[in-house]
């Protein structure tokens, strides 16, 4: 009875003590973002660092050390830039700034997209405490995605409790206990699914550690088919039956990397689209504050999502106006990093031209003759006399010093906004056409018309800005094209002009666990700086939307199913196009797409209305390995 009473009295005390221990408040982890590494060469490490730093500051679980504090401590301890996370330096930084968790971020390629991995480690031992990752479509991190990534990392961290009020040393055990052998870790089904699909199904499923092989091989295989419902004639292209394969190889060592992509394409309906060439191939050397890359590069400038007037370095295949295709350019790029500032210099030794739907010949009445459905128009000729027209195709300038091209770009983060200024001098990728009309000296009387093309030098000044307010992202972008005809005196040379874009996008969600809605809206306007904007076919290729609205609404119904509607409304020509699309991903590697592209308008002039017969239904499938 005595022991029963004693046990009955102790049980409430033990329960009360357990409740007190469980009720101890959790404390925030003091963290330092010690490394942000871009292994793709496509992102700005300073922009990634700033976005992650702000996300850590917004988190209730973390107390981040400021970037300036880390830099000052590193200088005081003589820690080289880019070496803060090294085992010999990290404990000293953590002791000086009193942070108990170090966070590193790395951006790598994943199929056709990108993966950003956050790791939390214990500074003293280097033990990994938690890992979280996010798959991105572009090498750019939005504020809302950074918040979700940081929240996922905080949930996976082991909980910390506040220190007890009285610091009492525990009694030593009478008998030393043998250490327990660690249990072998068995990946759960959720962890396996997350590793295979790239979707974080569970908060507690860690991704297995990834090791970067010295050489990686990849491939992309795609097929596409469509037919135009309206038949324009025997010689016009009637559709597309395309199969393509791209082979990719990547290799890297300490401070150097190389990458190449070789594209093979066969279009059985339009042989002009066949390709058998290098899509991208480059070699890169990288230090702590600099990087040098040379080869055939694909370069992307601009902050807008729907139209980028400042993206001028790459030549573009415009032979299908509904599916323009960027082609790589031979160049060398030198980048220098000064904290949040990135300075880039470009040198392009080989002039290259855009691929255009130019006519193959011009008839006696001035009408264009071509197989392309996008080559329509008429050369204005004097009436009353027959004409014999000779078309001389534009000749791309040769690679010599007088035709050298180059540019510079400055990228910086100021007050939470990402800003970029650039200047490029190029041999114009669009041709300048001249028309000479002379009467024949001998009868019968007719006109001798000669159309010749050339590529003149053009200077381009660019600007773009991006600012995020939670889930709202605001963008502005502009480009000024300074042609050779600065005073608008030559009727054949394009007058100087500028194109501006302003808009933003907003994301709703996630809701219903993994659904989201993304809305984009941008306004485009072009104006002549001197003279007037040309409205001929080449002018419409330079400025497909002189003034108008661009919109896109994307609904992701889980990780595999995506619905999207995009459209453009030209306010000048009262025409435009709309394209609803559905995409489905199978087995994380195969993407099937069904899309209808509808061109509308009642006028016979403009960028879209004259090509109403080119509306089409497309089906494609693409697999990446």
Tell me what you see in this structure.
The protein has 625 residues and is mostly beta strands. Helix content is 13%, strand content 44%. It has an 18-stranded antiparallel barrel. A five-stranded mixed sheet has the order 2-1-3-4-5, with helices on one face. The chain has a three-stranded mixed sheet with strand order 17-21-20, with no helix packed on it. Helix 2 crosses helix 5. The longest helix has 21 residues. The N and C termini lie far apart (74 Å). The N terminus is likely disordered.
What are its keywords?
625 residues, 30 strands, five-stranded mixed beta sheet, mainly beta, elongated, disordered N terminus
What is the structure about, briefly put?
By secondary structure, the chain is mainly beta. 13% of the residues lie in helices and 44% in strands. It has an 18-stranded antiparallel barrel. Strands 2-1-3-4-5 form a 5-stranded mixed sheet, with helices on one face.
